[in-house]
């Protein structure tokens, strides 16, 4: 029997400045980094014995690792209903509301349908991890169909995403959002940290970030720069045995491109753009932003090969919140990501329920940043934090404990 150590409310309502110093993690308040940057800077020691992957797993009720075909496929069906319902609601609103309301209707549709697309994308991501069902075949069929429909190369991305999980916050082998080590006095860095530079960075990420990463491995490890997720011969990303999986991913993209071309021939380019491409672009932006925020904070370090361990990387993950509704719509990928990074094969509905147990067990080594709100909205607060992180988290350099800190 595993009594729940804390209520859901206590997790979701934790102020962003508060950090619970309890559990086996002990206290790291005496370290310079924690004193300077706050509790998120607490980093697990290399010789930690009380907190291991095994001990974390043992702190979680076993039933939370069990995958259910009914639950998982039910979430796919529900998400498809949300997509259809949002589309129909927008069309009805355009018909019954005055014409001057059309821009507002379209903007609302693009945002919410982008959230719906992201929810489906997250389920396909679960398939790639093996956390969707117990069947690899079912996982790959569902994941390939969903990701292909959202113009994502399913197998290719799943392969490199596994590397991201293995080398989180590793400066030389990290797969995504590996920060620069340039001097903070460099002119380009100073511009990047200015308001204009921050907004330019956000716009580029929003419009081009996802496919720039897929095509050139931008933001990944330097030695893998220029490697494409669409090339079976990209040796820095794939092994020779992966070639047919990369081709299958490309086939899915081509088939979806054919579907879109047919839709353009029937309904016109503007209809396809308004109904599909804009929400899909919003989805892509969400993917880039969420991944960035899950592992980036000015108080969370990166590590070179000597200081990095798998557990240190995994525990560099940060739970955040987009507000209760959006967190629920996105299958809690934002607010239960610490658990997901440690046990990526756990079903998403188990990860949320497991978070209080893991939080208690990790103590000071559990990282979260909750409570930021703008006008009472945690969703807007999340994007405020996103701006702040894009503004401040640009380059890293050596600092306390031999880690690399944002500066």
What does this structure look like?
The chain has 407 residues and is mainly alpha-helical. The chain is 56% helix and 1% strand. The protein contains 16 helices and 2 strands. It has helices at residues 8-12, 32-37, 53-58, 69-96, 102-129, 136-149, 154-166, 187-192, 195-216, 243-267, 269-295, 310-314, 324-329, 337-342, 348-362, 378-392, and strands spanning 396-398, 404-406. A two-stranded antiparallel ribbon has the order 1-2. α5 (102-129) packs antiparallel against α6 (136-149) and α6 (136-149) crosses α10 (243-267). The longest helix has 28 residues, at 69-96. The relative contact order is 0.17.
Could you give a quick summary of the protein structure above?
With 407 residues, the protein is mostly helical. The chain has helices at residues 8-12, 32-37, 53-58, 69-96, 102-129, 136-149, 154-166, 187-192, 195-216, 243-267, 269-295, 310-314, 324-329, 337-342, 348-362, 378-392, and strands spanning 396-398, 404-406.
């Amino acid at each position: 029997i595993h009594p729940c150590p804390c209520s859901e409310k206590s997790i979701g309502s934790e102020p962003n400045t508060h950090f619970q110093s309890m559990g086996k993690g002990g206290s790291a308040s005496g370290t310079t980094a924690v004193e300077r940057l706050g509790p998120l800077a607490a980093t697990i020691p290399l010789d930690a014995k009380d907190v291991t992957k095994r001990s974390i797993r043992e702190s979680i009720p076993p039933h939370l690792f069990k995958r259910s075909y009914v639950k998982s496929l039910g979430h796919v069906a529900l998400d498809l209903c949300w997509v259809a319902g949002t589309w129909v609601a927008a069309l009805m609103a355009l018909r019954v509301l005055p014409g001057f309301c059309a821009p507002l209707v379209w903007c609302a549709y693009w945002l919410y349908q982008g959230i719906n697309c992201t929810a489906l994308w997250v389920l396909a991501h679960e398939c790639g991890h093996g956390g969707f069902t117990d069947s690899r075949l079912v996982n790959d069929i569902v994941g390939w169909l969903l990701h292909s429909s959202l113009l994502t190369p399913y197998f290719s991305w799943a392969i490199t995403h596994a590397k991201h999980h293995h080398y989180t916050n590793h400066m030389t082998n990290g797969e995504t959002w590996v920060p620069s080590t340039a001097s903070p006095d460099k002119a380009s860095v100073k511009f990047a940290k200015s308001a204009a530079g921050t907004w330019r960075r956000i716009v580029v990420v929003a419009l081009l970030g996802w496919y720039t990463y897929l095509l050139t491995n931008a933001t990944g490890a330097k030695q893998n720069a220029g490697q494409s997720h669409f090339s079976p011969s990209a040796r820095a990303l794939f092994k020779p045995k992966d070639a047919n999986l990369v081709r299958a991913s490309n086939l899915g993209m081509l088939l979806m491109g054919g579907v879109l071309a047919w839709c353009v021939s029937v309904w016109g380019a503007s209809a396809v753009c308004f109904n599909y491409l804009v929400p899909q672009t919003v989805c892509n932006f969400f993917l880039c932003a969420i991944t960035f925020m899950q592992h980036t904070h000015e108080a969370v370090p990166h590590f070179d090969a000597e200081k990095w361990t798998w557990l240190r990387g995994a525990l560099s993950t940060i739970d955040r919140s987009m507000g209760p509704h959006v967190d629920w719509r996105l299958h809690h990928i934002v607010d239960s990501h610490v658990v997901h990074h440690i046990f990526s094969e756990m079903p998403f509905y188990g990860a949320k329920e497991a978070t209080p147990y893991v939080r208690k067990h990790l103590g000071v080594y559990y990282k979260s940043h909750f409570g930021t709100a703008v006008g009472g909205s945690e969703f807007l607060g999340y994007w405020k934090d996103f701006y702040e992180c894009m503004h401040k988290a640009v380059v890293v350099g050596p600092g306390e404990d031999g880690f690399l800190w944002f500066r």
